[in-house]
Specification:
Elements: E1 4-8, E2 19-23, H1 26-41, H2 43-47, E3 51-56, E4 59-65, H3 79-94, E5 101-110, E6 119-130, E7 133-142, E8 147-157
Antiparallel strand pairs: 1-2, 3-4, 4-6, 5-8, 6-7, 7-8
Length: about 160
């Protein structure tokens, strides 16, 4: 099946998040629509300057540039903000099936510091989705591929739909 390019626009206070996505199936289109709907309501991710780059079933990729106001007392990106980026990627991946899904637990390993100006990318992958439960791994790395953090999230789904 041929891929159909679709312009996906995510409106935030900085106009970030416009990208082309290849959509090849009804599931891909649903995941993209869920991402659009969730990002439009996600004031926290938008306030941190996150850009939602891609959502597919069980997968999401977000990007965030480390700003001066994100630095801690050591001059590196506050770990809570690296966690927030990973958690947002986790949220978009586990909700991509159009079922309201929340975190039931998560952990993070900080591997290296991020510095002002670093472009951070978080990619989340679904590892297991069985019944109402799921497990997702998120890799946070700089744009040059250097690892910053490894996150694992556990999810629990409700019976509600995101898109109605």
């Amino acid at each position: 099946m041929a891929l159909s390019p679709v312009l996906v626009e995510h409106k935030g206070p900085w106009g970030r998040g416009v990208s082309w996505a290849a959509v090849s199936s009804p599931e891909d289109r649903t995941a993209a629509a869920v991402g659009d709907a969730m990002f439009a309501r996600d004031a926290a991710s938008q306030a941190l300057g996150m850009a939602l780059e891609e959502v597919r079933p069980g997968y999401a990729r977000l990007r965030m540039t480390v700003r001066a106001d994100m630095l801690n007392g050591h001059g590196t990106c506050h770990g809570g903000l690296v966690f927030a980026l990973a958690d947002s990627a986790f949220a978009f991946a586990c909700n991509s099936h159009d079922v309201v899904t929340v975190a039931s637990g998560c952990s993070i390993e900080f591997l290296a510091p991020a510095r002002e100006g670093d472009e951070l990318i978080a990619e989340a992958w679904e590892r297991v989705r069985e019944g109402r439960n799921g497990v997702y791994d998120v890799s946070v790395h700089r744009a040059d591929g250097a690892p910053i953090a490894a996150f694992r999230g556990r999810s629990a789904s409700t019976r509600e739909r995101i898109l109605g």
